[in-house]
Amino acid sequence: MNKIFILYISLGYICFACSGPQQEEIDTTLEHNEGNISGATMLLSSWEMKPRKRIMEWVEQVTDSLSLDYIPESDRIAVFDNDGTLWTEQPMYFQLAFAIDEIKRMAPDHPEWTDKGLFKPLLEGDVQGFLAGGEESLLALLKASHTGMTTEEFDQRVKTWMKTATHPDTGKHYNEMVFQPMLELLDYLQANGFKTFIVSGGGIDFMRAWAEEAYGIPPYQIVGSVGGLSYEMEGEKPVLNKLPELYFNDDKAGKPVGISRNIGKRPVFAAGNSDGDYEMLQYTSTGHGKRFGMYIHHTDSVREYAYDRESHIGKLDKGLDDAEKYNWLVVDMAKDWKVIYPYNKK
């Protein structure tokens, strides 16, 4: 298996020591803000005035056909990172949580995993002990949970997991932990002629299984890390089988490459939350004309999580240092968002 296939869910990304939010505090916050939430169709109603004003003024300028900053609708490309930008990413990337749960689900059919082998610590609840096995353990985890099946089978596994698995801190289903303010922003941009894309280091097949329902972004507008596929015949039926190799790693400098290959135009709007998104925001912001770059800064330890420069997941260091240089909006989640998760979700 190609070693870089494990990059986007590698050991260094996991932070079990992070302090998670308390469910009671989250529920109280949502109830207090119920009057501020009336769905993603409202004009950024979950945003505080200062960031909302900046976003809306920019959109008004670039969509006014009489403005010198006017951007034709065909060029209104907006790109969003996923993990930590559109939904929560702590205490581990949700795709890694899926992989671990898949091993547990399949364990009854593999008694050899319980008696011996790499997965024994994992099945006994010792995730850190399992990950201490390093690359060998992670490669085995990905191979067993992400490959050796058709794309249709993998898609169904992810969808089933989304309906049944719950987050360890909030008790919510993982796809209920999308950010209400970002849902509103996606709707607002789409209503103003922007085509919205997800550009993530996560696996493209994993995101395509659920992102359209969660965000209203269709599968063909998702750019992500891509594994190997083979075209084969199962009897009279042609299928695509997932292979244990990496075709493209869509992270850091790979993001502008993925954008060029898959979208074909430089974005005019980009949003991220970590230094893994730095090159995407830089690429967007240095294009011709009026551009918009945004960082989501996780500062809310009560309603979500607080982390940045020293975090093993979603590290935001260089992006904070250069935000003023590129005129990027840094969204302070604790101060700038009236609510984190949609009220109509669990």
Account of the protein in words:
This protein is of the alpha/beta class. The chain has a single domain (16-91, 170-336), classed as 3-Layer(aba) Sandwich (Rossmann fold). It contains 15 helices and 7 strands. The chain has helices at 23-32, 49-63, 94-106, 111-115, 120-123, 127-131, 135-146, 151-164, 180-191, 204-208, 211-215, 254-262, 278-285, 318-322, 333-336; strands at 77-80, 195-203, 222-234, 237-248, 269-272, 292-297, 329-332. The protein has a 7-stranded mixed β-sheet with strand order 4-3-2-1-5-6-7, sandwiched between helices. Strand 3 (222-234) and strand 4 form a beta hairpin. Helix 3 (94-106) crosses helix 7 (135-146). The radius of gyration is 20 Å and the shape is globular. Mean pLDDT is 89; it is low at 1-19 and 22-41.
Share of helix among residues?
25-40%
Proportion of strand residues? 15-25%
Q: Helices and strands, in N-to-C order? A: HHEHHHHHHHEHHEEHEHEHEH
- Give me the Rg, rounded: 20 Å
CATH H-level superfamily: HAD superfamily/HAD-like
CATH architecture: 3-Layer(aba) Sandwich
Give the strand order, joined by hyphens, for the main sheet.
4-3-2-1-5-6-7
Give the rounded overall mean pLDDT.
Answer: 89
Flag low-confidence runs. Answer: 1-19, 22-41
The total of beta strands comes to: 7
The count of helical stretches stands at 15
Shape: globular
Secondary structural class? alpha/beta
Largest sheet: 7 strands, mixed
CATH topology: Rossmann fold
CATH top level class name? Alpha Beta
- Cα-to-Cα separation, first versus last residue: 39 Å
Number of self-contained structural domains: 1
